[in-house]
Structure prediction request, 395 residues.
Amino acid sequence: MKKKSMLILLLLLTLIHSIILVSENPISTTSSMNSQILSVQECDIDLNHFKVLSERSDAYTLRQKYVQHEPIVIEDNADFAALGFTGDGSLDNPYIIEGLNITSKAQILIHIQDTISYFCIRNNLLNGLRSAGDGISMERVIYGTIDSNIIINCRTGIDIFESNQCIVTHNTISQNGDGIVFEMTDQNTAIHNTISQNTYGILVMWSNHTTVANNNVSNNHWEGISLRASGNNNVSNNFVANNSYGIYLMDTCNTTVAHNIVSKNRLYGIYIHLEIHLPLTSGDNIIKRNNILGNNPGNGSQASDDGTNNIFTSNYWDDHDNTDLNSDGFADAPYTIEGTVNNQDPCPLSVPAVIEIITLSKVPEFEGYFILVVIHLLFWLRKQQYRIENKKRTK
Prediction:
């Protein structure tokens, strides 16, 4: 008993220490929006144990000083230099569009098309004033990076069309129609973004080899992460909460959905859907080692599958009887997946998986370390409690 008390005290002290560190190291954000640097929020697994640094208050003001600027249109490689942006378009010295405040009802605030130069759009504030325009639009480009921008009040925050090998990272995208859209693209990445209060969170359409990882996708009106008519994608280590559907796959195949926290979405946490009028299948997807918590409340299963040959395995479902009599880490009974194919997770986890999700902003190493320590310790404590309970059942 004494050891248990000491452990709990250690957890509390570590949590307090991490919060103090964060309060002394504010991260750039606007005073009108909250941001989340590591969002696991409360997931109601007995200990109510996930809530760590959920929302920053209005006291965290914007550090970046922006320069007012008109909307930008770049239609070929030469336009970067012609408009005075630094760099030469090489890998080591990309063109830089940085530190601008573009607030306008223009159709597109930053539009780049038909380029093969390396470029980076970073540390800008883009406000569409609730117009029908996009924040950033890229068409037929390669080697573009969109980093650490705040994009609000646009039709689409970031729209990437027929473009390859682009990276979207550390952006805050809020109060738009769509958050991030990849359409007819290949080999693109969305990582460490916070996408909230949009109509849709992240949309991947007719696109392949897309990585969607370590994003906070929460409080969007429809799907949090939606993949449509796409293949060979990876969706991992995301926090997806309080949307209509959490992760939605329609006519999508050969995609891995792993190590995500999918929590408190109003409908299914994970939904694999087949549109019968399209000559595609929603098949051969793998759904594994996700924590699926409190979705589709009061309506049955937290997931549905209408596709073919989809594998659900080793996920944690908080509405399941997770009795584990042999203490092998897996519940003794399978979890039933709703849908037309009568699928199931044959070996659901008996305790939540340890999942690290770091979203938004450049978290100082020391600060981030303490946050992750708290998460690891809390999950470890919960695992020990489950083991003790299971041993008592077997006696």
Remarks:
- Confidence is low (pLDDT under 50) at residues 13-63, 361-378.
